[in-house]
Design a protein that fits this description.
- The protein is built from 11 helices and 20 strands.
- It is of the alpha/beta class and 438 residues long.
- The chain folds into 2 domains: 292 residues, Adenylosuccinate Synthetase, Chain A, domain 3; 96 residues, Adenylosuccinate Synthetase, subunit A, domain 2 (Orthogonal Bundle).
- The chain is globular.
- 50% of the residues are buried.
- The chain binds guanosine-5'-diphosphate (GDP), 6-O-phosphoryl inosine monophosphate and magnesium ion.
- Guanosine-5'-diphosphate binds next to helix 1 and strand 3.
């Protein structure tokens, strides 16, 4: 019966794909509920590196059924590319196990062009979007003129509606932005052909999730992006246009809260952000470079989707407590603890300072964090390589103390500790209770 939600507790790229892969071993259904191909989730299995943008990370396990929910915006072209890529890697991506909600919205070439045009017009004040057309597609949805995936059931009529959308958006692109618009006839031909291929994947995902829960199956809802990128709850306007938080899972899958069991927040052992916006614990210089890595390893801090270097900083305990509150987190998974090896001392942000006043929690939403100076606590670092650690006892005492400090600050048990990108590089801890600050 249970529904478990995996949600990013920071600004995205926390390792949600890797944790989803781990928990998918015990789930029958894995479902993405929000966002689109702005997401980039990595799963490492031995020599194979899977990068998922739209398809749930659970697809890597052959026993799962995988759904893309109605809260998503889907570019049919990149979806087909992803299906073909996975197929070439030997993954079964047939419509028997992969379903796309008829309620998901379609991203067109015009949405992509508008995303780029709007960024360019912000001239120096860009949001740093992924330029995948995400904002414009959700704008059309909210304006009630969007194209829903269910339209692909009739490819010829869908193609005509795509042409109309591209034509209308094209007028904006030409008249407002002075840019060349995508060709409506070309878009219609392409999208008509894509619809022919995607038609068998269409389903009422809400009903399928309901049936799975009724049948006693475990449904794992895989979040994209992160709490602080939520349209309402994040660092607005430096956010994405959807709801990556736990409430977004219910709406995005079309399921109620009754069967909710766990809400697992995934957080890195430090903080990263890609794109613009406030970041109180951001670091410049040698420590930031060290956290980011050089780009030679797949896990170095360069965007999976855009290749952009990620901004890096110390772990922010204030934001972790905030993520716990707004998502109703039941537990944490901490990833990339191995990356902190060799840094001494380590710092964690306990509170914010503003005009001589200390705030242990956000005084006024997460929208504007730019005024705050972090109050840090220093903790001793460690030198040992953590890649071989598989049990709590394998961690050096300083690493244990660091994790325990996260538990005390967040009020949440840290049930999973990831010490490397590989499936088995994980420490799973027993069920433990921690005093909640709420
Ligand atoms: P997601 O968007 O939240 O799924 O995260 P990404 O896949 O964009 O970024 C996380 C990166 O860190 C990926 O390359 C993962 O393989 C890698 N990763 C995840 N957990 C760990 C870990 O514990 N240690 C190391 N070194 N890499 C990790
Ligand atoms: P995953 O699922 C990190 C960021 C962009 C930008 C802002 C708005 O891999 O964690 P958008 O294209 O959504 O309109 O961009 O959101 N962003 C992400 N950052 N990880 C992601 O996904 C992101 N998806 C969007 O960088 O700052
Ligand atoms: Mg990512």
């Amino acid at each position: 019966m249970p529904l478990d939600i995996i949600v990013g507790a920071q600004w995205g790229d926390e390792g949600k794909g890797r944790i989803t892969d781990l928990l998918a071993a015990e789930a029958q259904v894995v479902a993405r509920y929000s966002g689109g191909d702005n997401a980039g989730h990595t799963v490492t299995v031995g020599e194979q590196l899977f990068q998922l943008h739209l398809i749930p990370s659970g697809i890597v396990h052959p026993h799962t059924r995988c759904f893309m929910g109605g809260g998503m915006v889907v570019n049919p072209e990149t979806l087909i590319q992803e299906i073909d890529r996975l197929d070439a890697l030997g993954v079964d991506v047939s419509p028997k196990r992969l379903k796309l909600s008829t309620a998901a919205h379609i991203v067109t070439p015009a949405h992509r062009a508008l995303d780029g045009a709007e960024e360019a017009r912000r001239g120096g004040r860009e949001l740093g979007t992924t330029r995948r057309g995400i904002g414009p597609a959700y704008t059309d949805k909210a304006a009630r003129r969007g194209l829903r995936a269910g339209l692909m059931r009739d490819p010829a009529s869908f193609a005509r509606q795509v042409a109309q959308q591209v034509q209308a958006a094209g007028e904006m692109l030409e008249k407002v932005y002075g840019l060349q618009a995508p060709d409506p006839a070309e878009a219609a031909e392409l999208y008509g052909a894509l619809a022919e291929r995607l038609r068998p994947y269409l389903a009422d995902v809400g009903a399928l999730v309901g049936q799975a829960l009724q049948a006693g199956e475990t449904v794992l809802a895989e979040g994209a992006q992160g709490t602080l990128l939520d349209l309402d709850l994040g660092t607005y306007p430096y956010v994405t246009s959807s709801h990556p938080t736990a409430p977004g899972a219910l709406l995005g899958l079309g399921v109620g809260a009754r069967q909710l069991r766990r809400v697992l927040g995934v957080a890195k052992a430090f903080q990263t952000r890609v794109g613009a916006g406030p970041f109180p614990t951001e670091l410049q210089g040698a420590i930031a470079d060290r956290l980011r890595g050089t780009g030679e390893h797949p896990w170095d801090e360069f965007g999976t989707t855009t290749g952009r270097p990620r901004r890096c900083g110390w772990l922010d305990g204030v934001l972790l407590r905030y993520a716990s509150r707004v998502n109703g987190l039941t537990e944490l998974a901490i990833t990339k603890l191995d990356i902190l090896t060799g840094l001494d001392p380590l710092r964690i942000c306990l509170a914010y300072q503003q005009d001589g006043e200390r705030h242990n929690d956000l005084p006024d939403s997460a929208a504007d964090l730019s005024e705050f100076t972090p109050v840090y606590e220093d903790l001793p670092g460690w030198q040992a390589d953590l890649w071989q650690a598989r049990r709590w006892e394998d961690l050096p005492p300083q690493a244990q103390a660091y994790v325990e400090r996260i538990e005390a600050l967040s009020g949440l048990p840290v049930r999973l500790i990831s010490v490397g990108p590989e499936r088995e590089q994980i420490i799973q801890r027993d069920t433990r209770e921690v005093d909640s600050p709420y």
